[in-house]
Amino acid sequence: MTAGRVSVNGEVVTELGSKVDPLVDEVAVDGKVVHLSDGPVTIMLHKPAGVITTMKAQSDKPIVANLVPTDEYPGLYPIGRLDADTTGLLLFSTNGELGNALLHPSQHVSKTYLARVKKPLSDEAAQQLRAGLELNDGPTQPADVSFADKQRKLVRITIHEGRYHQVKRMFEAVGDPVVSLHRESFGPLKLGDLKPGKWRILSDDEVAALAQGGRGEGHGETRQP
Ligand code: URA
After folding, report:
1. CB 202 within 8 A of CB 192
2. Buried-most residue among 7, 25, 76, 209 (CB within 10 A)?
3. What ligand 1 atom has the least distance to the C-alpha of 81?
4. What is the pTM of this model?
5. Domain interval for residue 95
């Protein structure tokens, strides 16, 4: 503080022992807003294509850590992952317990994807996807599958588990590989009109619905990166 690095509501404060109201005052260190007594924060990001789901760069490829507000909320961590070429809804939270609970196989959180496939999906293949099929790490659970375009090359699929490359492997197994993949929803949360690369903080209702294992819907405050 004495170095003039702390400001309250835009005014530099150097006096030790100065008081703030964390619910009203905006405190910044080196110009960056900090959240003094906020509870855990959970956000959704619209992950663009070509961005790797990691918080630590291992190459010069773009990573999700650079798209979410880690300065404001240092403990943010992705809940699960999307492949680099997959777009759509990716959750982050500072609440590790929430993340672990949502990823636990016993939770069966539903995730809905729009998959563009190489050739029109046959009824038989759709039926196999619905019923469950054998992958090299075991059988898949029943999935919801519907056609999202007349050509049957855009398929909406909801799975209730989350194994490595699961959707791509399922389509591969029925002989119709995925050309592009987009996650529309995670449990009760929908991506909605959040634009690629943008994030927003989830409302308390949305976090509660998530924690309940996928019931209910809510709308959080929209924020720009
Ligand atoms: N399934 C996949 O194959 N890839 C993803 O990114 C998500 C689900």
Report:
1. no
2. 76
3. 6
4. 0.82
5. 39-104+192-223
